[in-house]
Design a protein that fits this description.
Layout: H1 2-20, H2 31-55, H3 64-81, H4 83-91, H5 101-106, H6 121-136, H7 140-162, H8 170-178, H9 181-186, H10 192-212, H11 216-232, H12 234-252, H13 258-275, H14 285-303, H15 318-323, H16 325-334, H17 344-365, H18 375-395, H19 399-405, H20 409-420, H21 423-429, H22 431-439
Length: 441
């Protein structure tokens, strides 16, 4: 009863914040619309909990929906014994001291079975939940409400960044950013994805603002967003990096072939990544991806996942990565294939992939003339999607994991599709969409 009341209390408080905070209002996003999206996200967050609690049997050891939350309660418990213990665990000071050893030992997922990676993002999400615990008093559903709110901030920031370029397609942009089912589902639970969406959206929004007119506020948001992504999902910021650099260069100097600029930066970045480890051994991207590939294959074999499939076991050689590009992109784009669907969720994910891919294909057939396409933005989105999908496809042999990991890419896929779409051709075939778009003011 206490958890229900506290969950309702925070929901009402955050609804009030949404209606009062000007950040959420940009003409098209009225308080009523954004409040409805927030409540919808909370509904999806509760659905995720219900599926993992009832359908998958409340497995606290294997489910990301619970295990990082449970570990955060250990850190929160340290606060009651000695606040300095909590602060040191939160900040990461003196973690090797004996007085913190009992807490670190009790946190099952503070360390990782497969420790390869630039940063331990498990610790980051545990710490985020430990901060939430200060307000939730350890009640799970309050964390769902908080995560929905923060991911809503990220999605709103992403919408505000791109809506000036898609004024005549505002309705489809709203749907493409806020209402893709897998983004709603995975981005509304007590998971890393909510934090990724939060920081990624703010990064893009602040980047566009800084490039347009630099100031300290937007630059601070940009730096903080990059730091959060570094510690929660480093491969997302790596995938964004060529687009960020290319966007800044193209804004400073108008070049004739924007896509070539993005492509050149991506290739240059790849070449640098092959040699940087000679100077800084800890940053060896190829080796990190190789171990991620091996670790994920081992994990899929150990857990006997229902959605596991075969991928090539890479060797620590760039040629192997190049050869795997077609299968990596195919797996990330289309898995789970509809004929592989062994559950209702897998079937739904497969149908979602097909539907959104067909929408992108429709936009391609109804595309603008080349001269009317903003290739600066197209290249930005395309570069991010391709690099993100390669990272996922190179390392992940489980369809269920792919569905989760690629949700940062779905809004960009929809934005990319809308950037090339000729709205006049679309509205000529579907005039009712023009009327609906006009109502979003």
């Amino acid at each position: 009863m206490t958890e229900a009341l506290l969950t309702i209390f925070y929901t009402l408080i955050l609804l009030w914040v949404i209606r009062k905070w000007s950040f959420f209002h940009c003409g098209e996003l009225t308080p009523n619309i954004i409040s409805a999206i927030f409540l919808l996200k909370i509904g999806f967050g509760f659905l995720l909990f219900a599926i993992y609690y009832f359908y998958y049997g409340n497995n606290r050891f294997t489910s990301d929906a619970f295990r990082f939350f449970d570990d955060s309660l250990v850190m929160y418990g340290a606060l009651k014994k000695d606040p300095t213990y909590y602060l040191r665990l939160l900040i990461g000071i003196g973690l090797d001291k004996p007085d913190l050893a009992p807490y670190i030992k009790e946190m099952t997922f503070w360390g990782r079975d497969f420790p390869h990676g630039l940063f331990n993002d498990n610790q980051t999400i545990i710490r985020v939940n430990a901060i939430f615990d200060l307000f939730s008093f350890g009640y799970y559903h309050v964390h769902t409400v908080f995560m929905c709110f923060f991911s809503l901030i990220g999605l709103t920031a992403l919408y505000k960044a791109f809506v000036p370029f898609l004024q005549k397609l505002k309705l489809l942009l709203l749907i493409g950013i806020f209402l893709i089912p897998s983004v709603l589902f995975w981005g509304s639970g007590v998971l890393k994805e909510g934090v990724v969406i939060f920081s990624m959206g703010l990064l893009i929004w602040s980047l566009f603002k800084v490039v347009e007119k630099p100031n300290v506020k937007y630059l601070s948001v940009l730096i903080i967003s990059i730091l959060i992504l570094l510690f929660i999902k480093v491969y997302v910021i790596i995938a964004l990096a060529p687009g960020i650099i290319g966007f800044i260069l193209l804004k400073k100097k108008n070049r004739r072939h924007p896509l070539l600029v993005y492509f050149s930066i991506a290739i240059a970045g790849s070449l640098i990544s092959l040699s940087v480890h000679k100077k800084i051994p800890e940053i060896d991207l190829i080796t990190k991806l190789y171990f991620k590939n091996v670790d994920f294959i081992k994990m899929s074999e150990r857990t006997r996942s229902n959605s596991a499939f075969y991928i090539t076991r890479l060797n620590n050689n760039p040629i192997g990565f190049v050869k795997m590009i077609p299968s990596a992109l195919t797996n990330t784009t289309f898995r789970p294939f509809i004929w592989e669907s062994k559950s209702a969720m897998m079937l739904f994910n497969s149908l979602e992939n097909i539907t959104l891919f067909l929408f992108g294909t429709l936009c391609l057939f109804l595309s603008k003339k080349r001269a009317n396409i903003d290739f600066k933005l197209v290249g930005f989105c395309m570069t991010f999607i391709i690099i993100l999908y390669l990272f996922i496809g190179w390392t992940t042999p489980i369809s269920g994991a792919i569905v989760r990991y690629k949700i940062p890419g779905w809004p960009f896929f929809m934005i990319l599709s809308l950037l090339i779409l000729d709205e006049q051709k679309l509205y000529a075939k579907l005039p009712f969409l023009k009327k609906l778009n006009a109502k979003i003011k």
